[in-house]
Amino acid sequence: MTTISLCMIVKNEENVIGRCLDSVRDIVDEIIIVDTGSTDRTKEIISTYTDSIFNFAWIDDFAAARNFSFDQATKEYILWLDADDIIHEEDREKLIQLKKDLKPEIDAVSMEYQLAFDEEGIVTSSLRRYRLVKRERSFHWVGLVHEFLAVGGNLSHSEVRVKHMPQSDEEPSFRNLHIYEKMLSSGAILSPRDLFYYANELMDHGFYEKAIKHYLQFLDTKNGWVEDNIRACNKLADCYQQLGLEDLKFDWTIRSLSYGPPQPETCCRIGFLFLQKEDYLSAAHWFEQAISDQDENKTLFFQNQAHSTWLPHLQLAVCYDRLRQYKLANQHNELAANYYPTQPSIVANQEYFKKVLQA
């Protein structure tokens, strides 16, 4: 059976670290924790799980800390998690099976990373990340912030899911923004990837004009990953909306089509534009497009599930209601309810269509 080292970097995680370690402690063969300066009970809690606790002086470099944690591993494969991640029971079983079945020629295994959930616990946003890697390949982390693990060779995708479960009372952090600004003040030239993520940080903190500048710089490099190019167009549209520039919002929504096949989010965005213009046939076309190829949607590394499930069906219910195709509208509302039965608009529509169809 494959042996696994769990490698983590932590700081002041007393509220979540036990939950994370409980979810994998009996699956991994070694737990390695690198602490970057905790002042709470984090290390005390960790000491009940492992003696392999290392201190690492924080230097505003996530990749350096993660690489240090990987250097301490001794088992065949390395699994990495963050302190506010958790693997639930169903996925623990999948991870156990993966550990049993993993072939030695596999260099890295990706897992679905579930980032956000609605009040029913339904996943609303997810992406794939390479979580399990062969130690002897010496894969390294790259990037001071929003770091990524550079993998290659024989890659595999698993059905294991990791859930991101941060504390609900966490305040937005300026840490990443400050690291990027420190890089710039030192004269560093941001890579295309750093430009994109710096723009994201600026947008998340409400600096829309500055975010626009860096999204445009990112796209001008013509070296961005296709999905990031499309996401940059969508985010530019959102920035222009925040600034009240509706024409530019429209332009950048449409421009995303120049970077690749229309993705569900792009289709929904275009559908909304036509819905606002009361062009219901055109809107319906784009919402139908959003749900047209579910198999292809599953291959996207970054997914907002709402855009390929309940949301386009709900909007199709609106479109077909306006077009007086009430039975078809009701069918789409019921399909939306299959995904999100408690969504207020869907519930209200059910009452509405019951009366309309009776009439």
Please give a structural write-up.
This protein has 359 residues and is an alpha/beta fold. It folds into two domains: 4-164, Spore Coat Polysaccharide Biosynthesis Protein SpsA, Chain A; 175-358, Serine Threonine Protein Phosphatase 5, Tetratricopeptide repeat, CATH 1.25.40. It contains 15 helices and eleven strands. It has helices at residues 17-22, 42-46, 62-71, 89-101, 175-185, 192-204, 208-221, 226-242, 246-255, 264-276, 280-290, 294-297, 310-322, 326-339, 344-358, and strands at residues 4-10, 30-35, 53-55, 77-80, 85-86, 108-117, 123-134, 140-142, 148-150, 155-164, 302-303. The strands form two sheets. Strands 1, 2, 3, 4, 5, 6, 7, 10 and 11 form a nine-stranded mixed beta sheet that branches. The mean pLDDT is 93. InterPro entries: Glyco_trans_2-like (IPR001173), Nucleotide-diphossugar_trans (IPR029044), TPR-like_helical_dom_sf (IPR011990).
Per CATH, the architecture of the largest domain is Alpha Horseshoe
Number of domains: 2
Poorly predicted parts: none
CATH homologous group name of the largest domain:
Tetratricopeptide repeat domain
From the alpha-carbon coordinates, what is the Rg to the nearest angstrom?
Answer: 23 Å
SSE string: EHEHEHEEHEEEEEHHHHHHHHEHHH
**What spatial form do the alpha-carbon principal axes imply?**
globular
- Report the top-level CATH class of the largest domain: Mainly Alpha
Provide mean pLDDT, rounded.
Answer: 93
CATH topology annotation of the largest domain: Serine Threonine Protein Phosphatase 5, Tetratricopeptide repeat
GO molecular function: glycosyltransferase activity
InterPro entries: Glyco_trans_2-like, Nucleotide-diphossugar_trans, TPR-like_helical_dom_sf
Enzyme class: transferase
EC number: 2.4.1.-
